[in-house]
Design a protein that fits this description.
The complex is a heterodimer of chains A (about 120) and B (about 110). With about 120 residues, chain A is mainly beta. In chain A, about 0% of the residues lie in helices and about 50% in strands. In chain A, the strands form two sheets. In chain A, strands 2, 4, 5, 6, 9, 10 and 11 form a seven-stranded mixed β-sheet that branches. Chain A is globular, with a radius of gyration of 13 Å. Chain B is globular and about 40 Å long. The chains are: A mainly beta (about 120), B mainly beta (about 110). The interface between A and B is medium-sized, with 25 and 28 residues.
């Protein structure tokens, strides 16, 4: 059974860089699939951030592209998110998920981690 | 990219059927059969309920079904149960090689 677990600081200061990691268990990232990040600001809907393949190929949300970097570490079986120059608008629950093979759905998801941007 | 449009809330009584709509454009919902639906209980991981418009993942009750007509996709839940009360989100692949989600629909089981 594939499981994903997000981790990282719960509080980030404005203008700094948000960094999160998603640890994958029950499946080897290097075996395939795309892996992604999605977020949900308080009281709002879901927003796709981007996907990465084990080879490093990426797709990003154009609205975040200038600030986002998603990377993969196959040796640790995890992938990471970096979001630079954060503001209060980046406060959200951040989820990691596996993208469906040959399709564009996400399954499974991690339980999410709340990141608050505040000084 | 604009979010897909979903009703903010729907409700139904146990045993009834409800339908949640998800309206996009010819650049997303109308362009591909890559519409998926997620059930989200607050504090838990979102759960895939339908993918590729109408396919049900293994382990998901067949009370959940999906369809699409033009730029609008729909999720129907039949035989409503108390445990179905949750937030539901649709998503679609887009012509820009991105993913867009709906704003979410809160389902209340009366």
């Amino acid at each position: 059974q594939v499981q994903l677990q997000e981790s990282g600081p719960g509080l980030v200061k404005p203008s700094e860089t948000l960094s999160l990691t998603c640890a994958v268990s029950g499946y080897s990232i290097s075996s395939g699939y795309y892996w992604g990040w999605i977020r949900q600001p308080p009281g709002k809907g879901l927003e796709w951030i981007g996907n990465i393949y084990h080879s490093g190929s990426t797709y990003y949300n154009p609205s975040l592209m200038s600030r986002v970097t998603i990377s993969v570490d196959t040796s640790k079986n995890q992938f990471s998110l970096r979001l630079s120059s954060v503001t209060a608008a980046d406060t959200a629950v951040y989820y990691c998920a596996r993208r469906g093979l040959g399709s564009w759905y996400f399954d499974p998801w991690g339980r999410g981690t709340l990141v608050t941007v505040s000084s | 990219q604009s979010a897909l449009t979903q009703p903010a809330s729907v409700s139904g009584s146990p045993g009834q059927s409800i339908t949640i709509s998800c309206t996009g454009t010819s650049s997303d919902v109308g362009a591909y059969n890559y519409v998926s639906w997620y059930q989200h209980h607050p504090g838990k991981a979102p759960k895939l309920m339908i993918y590729d418009v109408s396919k049900g993942p293994s382990g998901i009750s067949n009370r959940f079904s999906g369809s699409k007509s033009g730029n609008t996709a729909s999720l129907t839940i039949s035989g409503l149960q108390a445990e179905d009360e949750a937030d539901y989100y649709c998503s679609s692949y887009t012509r820009s090689s991105t993913v867009v989600f709906g704003g979410g629909t809160k389902l209340t089981v009366l």
